[in-house]
Amino acid sequence: MTQSTTKQATRTAEQTALFVGCGDLAIRAAAALPASVRCIGLCRHPERLPDNIESLAGDYTCGSTFASLPQLAPDTIVFTLKPVGGRDSEAYQRGFLTPVKHLLAALGHHRPRRILFVSSTRVYTENDGGWVDESAPVADDDSPAGMIVAAERQLLNAGHPATILRCAGLYGGASARLTARIARGELSPASPVHYGNRVHRDDVAGFIAELIKREARGEVPADCYNLVDDNPAPQHEVDRWLAAALSVPVGEDPGSAADPGSRGHKRVSNRRWRSSGFVLRYPDYRSGYAAALGLQQERSAAC
């Protein structure tokens, strides 16, 4: 784990948060934290991090990357990982299970207050449109979802305080794949109904920051939360709403529309997340996409 000399945040730290895999989600979470939290970001390209995050250059698939972890002594560790080298099971093993194993092995005698692991609702096996909560069956094989589950279990069984954050489809970032598909007139069919689940990046990042602040106050969260908005909705409904927002003409029957590529077919309950007292900024796709489209329009006008 090599500290970058180009970016060194200047904070009077009362606690330290280490973000392993410091991409967009981690950057948003760090921005929501007070100056009393020292934020450290571990990633391959630390030069891309903002000044409020101390940058560490490292590859989280390599065990040697975590050699200085006991000296850093982070109070909170946040995993925001992604598959490495593809989208198959091996890529998910390298990107999720391997980093967790390496970090746990490197902790030594240091015990963080909590480890947060950003997971995915794709781990649930439900595929017939039914409702699932945190107790629902999950993948138990060597599929990509199974590798995420294996990483979750490795962490929960390690003896450290840990919380799993299973996120639905993230939106609100730089990627505009969905809106680009809609702009091309490629809408999901109304039949058969296919439910989708989603959550705005700012709500996930806000909850990560909130858990870090609550941990400092001695509050104990649940061991798992589904991070999804209040409105699991048929994908064709979302597509038609976006088409109207983008002024894309849509007939009564869009015909042989493109498959949106969403995984699974389920409705994910956020009851436990809501019960935590956290208030979602974007409780449904309408409010979230309206904000995202507004930002896109403002950027376009500024160019």
TrEMBL record:
Domain NAD(P)-binding: start-end pairs: 36-214
Keywords: NAD
InterPro entries named in the record: NAD(P)-bd_dom, NAD(P)-bd_dom_sf
UniProt keyword Ion transport, yes or no: no
A matching Pfam family: NAD_binding_10
Protein name: Nucleoside-diphosphate-sugar epimerase
Source species of the chain: Chromatocurvus halotolerans
